[in-house]
Design a protein that fits this description.
Elements lengths: L2 E11 L4 E9 L2 E7 L8 E6 L4 E4 L1 E6 L16 H10 L2 E9 L7 H12 L6 E7 L5 H5 L1 H6 L4 E5 L9 H14 L2 E5 L3 H13 L6 H5 L3 H18 L3 E3 L5 H12 L4 E5 L2 H4 L25 H13 L4 E2 L14 H5 L22 H8 L4 H15 L18 E3 L9 E2 L18 E2 L5 E4 L2 E5 L4 E2 L30
Parallel strand pairs: 1-4, 1-5, 6-7, 7-8, 8-9, 9-10, 10-11, 11-12, 12-13
Antiparallel strand pairs: 1-2, 2-3, 5-14, 14-17, 15-16, 17-18, 18-19
Helix pairs in contact: 5-8, 8-9
The protein binds N-(aminocarbonyl)-beta-alanine and zinc ion (3 copies).
């Protein structure tokens, strides 16, 4: 047969289009899109019948924490490149962008990149790249931005909170200026670390230490203030920024205003801000610790509605998982790390921040049935590819150009609604914050570069560890390059 694989009669969806097509794959690439019924079954070695099902470019999860040291002061992330990417493919994700974290004591970003690349080499089930996480922007680190670009790294993340990571405003400006000069997109974790410490002290003084007070310690204003400041710093340097994991309507509003002014401000949100509330932090005992992440889940339905609205109206560019897993019942992290000799009942400030979610991101969002299929693809695949310089190799289905990375769903209404259970997931974590939540869809097949790596009804994860490749990235195609140098005299 001429083709390696054909996918017949599916409803093929891209960010731009939806229609019934046959799709043909050869040598790992999309080779042909033709009207449904066009391709003969004998034209390929493998035939997938997708009658009645959505066929989409594979999910791109541009915010995943794997094999990270205890940078946030508490616990090591539970998933490594093997278990984290295994979980990704089982959830329809074909490329992840994880973090290469610089610790304050490390001066060379290239060393950080090399160390992380070694952790991932020959381990991954899906394709991957890294964002450099910068906690100490020394002159040497800044000078390495050009070399990072040559290595295919076109994005960095910085923090406005967490003692081990927080940058001062002048350091943020140093980073943004060099990012502008080298065509790097800067992701910013926007929470005011000083306000957070002060709020935490107020709660401690009143002995309010249960998991739900994690949310109390981080009110919306702490997020919207930092978001506003991050945007102002980006405007001063006139360079693109992306605000990561936005949880609050007030921060989304600040972002919307900046976008309306024409500033190159992008934003990300995550399923936890669509499906969890602060009540989830208030479960009996210390169970609420399982839903602690930063920023925290907000109050309730009105907040979720505002985030859904932001997904629909373009305030949010991408929907990522912020998969940042810790084992709950583990000596090193989770529960035990939050329960110390000093605080035998536990203290919210010792709970590692972050939830697992790389596997549930697509199914949860698809099952909610709130976005058009094209918008879904835009937010979960096409836009992350464009924003981070992977497009159109990833995030698209352009014959000859795009890798044959696909997620194929079940024909509509063929799955009975079923509960998410941690036992069915493929991460190395002992819980999911979505346990028992009912959903109605799950990826049936995941293909990466033409190979079926997930076949839910026949073998589950059928890809292999080490198949995933490091993908070199270009500069963002969502933003224009800035040809003129930044000059202080222009102010
Ligand atoms: O709580 C979270 N989001 N943990 C992950 C670390 C981060 O800031 O993204
Ligand atoms: Zn033909
Ligand atoms: Zn963050
Ligand atoms: Zn994160």
């Amino acid at each position: 047969p001429f083709y390696d694989c054909i996918v017949l009669n599916g409803t093929v969806v891209t960010a731009a289009d939806i229609g019934r097509y046959d799709l043909a794959i050869k040598d790992g690439k999309i080779m042909l899109l033709a009207p449904a019924g066009h391709l003969a079954r004998t034209s390929a070695t493998r035939v997938i019948d997708a009658e009645g099902a959505y066929v989409m470019p594979g999910g791109i999860d541009a915010h995943v924490h794997l094999a990270e040291p205890p940078l946030f002061g508490k616990g090591r992330t539970a998933d490594d490149y093997t278990t984290g990417t295994r979980s990704a493919v089982a959830g329809g994700t074909t490329t992840i962008v994880s973090f290469a974290p610089q610790e304050k004591s490390e001066s060379s970003l290239l060393d950080v990149l090399n160390t992380t690349a070694e952790k991932a080499a020959d381990q991954a089930y899906c394709d991957y790249s890294f964002h450099l996480l910068i906690s100490n922007p020394t002159a040497q680190a800044l000078d390495e931005f050009t070399a990072l670009r040559e290595r295919g790294i076109s994005s960095i993340k910085i923090y406005m909170t967490y003692e081990a990571l927080q940058l001062r405003d002048n350091q943020i400006l140093d980073v943004l200026l060099r990012a502008r000069e080298t065509g790097i997109t800067t992701m910013i974790h926007a929470e005011n670390g000083d306000v957070l410490s002060w709020m935490t002290k107020q709660l401690e003084d009143r002995k309010l230490l249960a998991p739900k007070y994690h949310a109390t310690s981080r009110p919306q204003i702490l997020e919207s203030e930092a978001t506003n400041r991050a945007i102002a710093l980006g405007e001063l340097i006139d360079t693109p920024i992306l605000i990561v994991h936005v949880s609050s309507p007030s921060a989304a509003q600040v972002i919307r205003q900046a976008q309306t002014k024409g500033l190159p401000v992008y934003a990300e949100t995550c399923p936890q801000y669509l499906f969890l509330t602060r009540d989830d932090l208030d479960k009996p005992g210390f169970e609420g610790a399982k839903c602690v992440c930063s920023p925290p889940p907000r109050q309730g339905p009105e907040d979720h509605e505002a985030i859904w609205a932001g997904l629909k109206n373009g305030t949010f560019t991408i929907l990522s998982s912020d998969h940042c897993p810790f084992i709950y019942d583990d000596a090193e992290s989770g529960k035990k790390a939050a329960i110390t000799p000093e605080f035998p009942e536990g203290h919210f400030k010792y709970i590692p921040n972050g939830c697992p979610g790389v596997e549930t991101r697509l199914a949860l969002t698809m099952s909610a049935d709130r976005l058009t299929p094209q918008k879904f693809v835009e937010l979960t695949s096409a836009n992350p590819a464009k924003l981070y310089g992977l497009y159109p190799r990833k995030g698209a289905l352009i014959p000859g150009l795009s890798d044959a990375d696909l997620v194929i769903w079940y024909p509509s209404d063929t799955l009975e609604p079923f509960p998410i259970t941690n036992s069915a997931l493929h991460h190395n974590v002992d819980y999911t914050p979505y346990e028992a939540r009912m959903i109605s869809q799950w990826p049936r097949y995941t293909l990466i570069r033409g190979e079926v790596v997930w076949d839910r009804d026949n073998g589950g994860v059928v890809g292999r560890k080490g198949y995933g490749q490091f993908i070199k990235r270009d500069r963002s195609s969502l933003t224009n390059s800035n040809p003129s140098p930044w000059t202080v005299e222009s102010f």
